[in-house]
Design brief:
The complex is a heterodimer. Chain A is α/β, with parallel strands linked by helices. Chain A is built from nine helices and 16 strands. In chain A, the strands form three sheets. Chain A has a seven-stranded parallel beta sheet, with helices on both faces. Chain A has a five-stranded parallel beta sheet with strand order 13-12-14-15-16. Chain A has a three-stranded antiparallel beta sheet with strand order 6-7-8, with no helix packed on it. In chain A, helix 3 crosses helix 4 and helix 5 packs parallel to helix 9. Chain A is globular and about 60 Å long. Chain B has a single domain, classed as HUPs (Rossmann fold, 3-Layer(aba) Sandwich), CATH 3.40.50.620. In chain B, strand 7 and strand 8 form a beta hairpin. The longest helix of chain B has 18 residues. Classes of the chains: A alpha/beta, B alpha/beta. Chains A and B meet through helix 3, helix 4, strand 5, strand 7 and strand 8 of A and helix 3, helix 4, strand 7, strand 8 and strand 9 of B. Strand 8 of chain A pairs antiparallel with strand 12 of chain B, so a sheet runs across the interface. Bound molecules: flavin-adenine dinucleotide (FAD).
Chain lengths: ~325, ~250
């Protein structure tokens, strides 16, 4: 039997859907027993949410004042102490999981599979390399715990309907004081979250200014979409950093992705490969984005976007 | 701040479109342009700026790789690193093994700060910095987009999914850098000439006495699934029709 420990991600109020996706990945391993681990100052609310995910057998809480913020240096030794007895340890490939999971792996003395995208067996997996230009199949040694981050764009969120048991653990692990949380600045909006939105409207360098990005926000409001951006648009200050889509930004899998004035660099495409439908609008008919677009329109975005907003709104 | 260690990986240049070998044994690397991993270049630039801001710290560039990695270390020296060290091996190392080797160097060199890219654009693993910090039992600050040094502390702004997070770490610490930390300088010809005279030491990986790497078995390497060819529409009303037909609006 595979005993799988999933590092749950949350903000104390809500369990991040990345956790539900990790559960789907874990369920693909035959005969898996799935435990979601939650660290926080008070994880009661999110533990109830985790217990309700179909396929989860157990939820383990480690509540402790020092766990109020997810500092890898503090979380990792606690997770490593708890990991004995598990065959697999999965974190999400979000900034939380990518920061934390390798630190745990190193403490356990084992290598890590990053961005696990497909399960071919309990110890056989696929992952992308070279910005998704190649896919490798890896085999791990069953004698060691398998540590991985799960590429969340590759898995659907597991539905609710479960009723797992919840328990609390106290660990005798001393935590370092060398790393201190100061604060977070979020561009939080009431718009759909980029990583989980069914629709995403995205803009590139061609937008030309933060002001012009409003065109995209208007369209997004009409269709209930999240707004994304290319690196060029973020670097130029037209969009904020958490909006970046791509190899080094967010990897997303919406139902539909609109790319306006984005050329389609490989580093951008790797972030949208799993979108069900890609719509591209670019004034250059030779733009590489058209090679991957399901629906393409050669045109000036400054004409197309307002017209599209109007026609959809009508 | 006396010494900054910058870790540099030799990778396929980001402009190269990497292709898979027909026999699925890997990707084609013969004759392909190799460069400093772009994120590591940003790490080096940051080290140089810390030095130039008056700390006058020594900047040491370290790489692990084949003999030809000396080319990338020469680039690092030309950018402004004071000294370079190549840990030579023909064996490709995974991040845990690389972290063990870097740990051995860190223990010898005692840097106040280790800077490296958040990921390498070949394996996209995003692990080495975190693993080094764990093995070294020191703080980690990943995905840095701003770094301020204040005596024995660093304040780091990190690019996280929610936005920008700030943490404070005691030095020595491992900081992995993101794209927006800075824009690396261009290397000028006289700097390339000067770099030829700077020290570049080569040691064998075996001489470090690090544990032999445990790794995964690579079964095969395949090209990614191709998307189906799409359609082109003439104007916005055709676009709206196409979206309606797909049930997307
Ligand atoms: C290590 C590394 C990591 C990277 N990571 C990422 C990443 O995560 N995400 C990412 O996006 N990029 C990333 N990049 C950058 C990437 O290589 C490209 O530079 C970037 O994606 C280009 O952004 P863009 O398409 O907006 O700009 P450009 O390439 O400049 O394209 C602008 C496009 O707009 C079109 N256009 C201009 N005016 C109009 C108009 N009026 N109407 C319609 N179309 C118009 C042009 O024809 C052009 O195709 C990375 C690069 C490196 C080296």
């Amino acid at each position: 039997m595979s005993k799988i420990l999933i590092l749950g991600e949350h903000d104390a109020k809500t369990l991040n859907p990345a956790t539900h996706k990790c559960v789907t990945c874990a369920k693909a391993i035959p005969g898996s027993h799935i435990t979601v681990l939650l660290l926080g100052a008070d994880t009661a609310a999110v533990a109830a949410q985790a217990a309700a995910i179909q396929g989860v057998d157990e939820v383990v809480r480690i509540d402790r004042a020092e766990n109020a913020h997810p500092l890898a240096a503090s979380f990792a030794p606690q997770i490593a102490a708890l990991a004995t007895g598990y065959t697999h340890l999965f974190g999400p490939s979000t900034s939380f999981g990518k920061d934390l999971t390798p630190r745990v792996a190193a403490l356990l003395g084992v290598p890590q599979v990053s961005d696990l995208m497909a399960v071919d067996g309990a110890y056989r997996f696929r992952r992308p390399i070279y910005a998704g230009n190649a896919i490798v199949t890896l085999e791990a040694d069953p004698a060691r715990i398998l540590v991985a981050t799960v590429r969340v764009a590759s898995f659907e969120a597991a539905p609710s309907g479960g009723a797992a048991t919840i328990s609390s653990r106290t660990l005798d692990v001393s935590l370092p004081s060398h790393t201190r949380y100061v604060g977070v600045h979020t561009g939080a909006t009431d718009r759909p979250d980029l990583q989980t939105a069914a629709r995403v409207v995205s803009g590139g360098r061609a937008l030309g200014s933060a002001e012009n990005f409003k065109l995209l926000f208007d369209l997004a409001s009409k269709i209930g979409a999240a707004v994304g951006a290319s690196r060029a648009a973020v670097d130029a200050g037209y969009a904020s950093n958490e909006m970046q889509v791509g190899q080094t930004g967010k990897i997303i899998a919406p139902q539909v992705y609109f790319a306006f004035g984005i050329s389609g660099a490989i580093q951008h495409l790797t972030g949208i490969k799993d979108a069900r439908t890609i719509v591209a609008v670019n004034k250059d008919p030779e733009a590489p984005i058209f090679e991957v677009a399901d629906v393409g329109l050669v045109g000036d975005l400054f004409q197309v976007v307002p017209e599209l907003s109007r026609l959809i709104g009508a | 701040m006396q010494k900054i260690m910058v870790c540099i990986k030799r990778v396929v240049d980001y402009n190269v479109r990497v292709r898979v070998k027909p026999d699925e044994s890997g990707v084609m690397l013969e004759g392909v342009k190799m460069s400093v991993n772009p994120f590591d270049e940003i790490a080096l630039e940051e080290a140089l700026r810390i030095k130039e801001r008056g700390t006058n710290a020594e900047v040491l560039a370290v790489s692990i790789g084949v003999a030809d990695t000396q080319q990338q270390l020469r680039t690092a020296l030309a950018m402004g690193a004071d000294r370079a060290l190549l840990v030579q091996t023909d064996q490709p190392l995974d991040p845990l093994a690389a972290a063990h080797a870097l740990l051995a160097i860190a223990k010898k060199e005692n840097p106040d700060l280790v800077l490296l890219g958040k990921q390498a654009i070949d394996d996209d693993a995003n692990q080495t910095g975190q693993m080094l910090a764990a093995l070294w039992n020191r703080p980690q600050a990943t995905y840095a987009s701003k770094l301020a040094i204040d005596g024995t502390k660093a304040t780091v702004t990190r690019e996280v999914d929610a936005g920008l997070e700030t943490i404070e770490v005691d030095l020595p610490a491992v900081v992995t850098v993101d794209l927006r930390l800075n824009e690396p300088r261009y290397v000028k010809l006289p700097d390339i000439m000067k770099a030829k005279k700077k020290p570049l030491d080569v040691i064998a990986l075996d001489s470090l006495g690090v544990p032999s790497p445990v790794s995964f078995k690579i079964v095969k390497t395949e090209p990614p699934a191709q998307r189906q060819k799409g359609i082109m529409v003439k104007d916005v009303s055709e676009l709206v029709d196409a979206l309606k037909k797909k049930g997307l609006i």
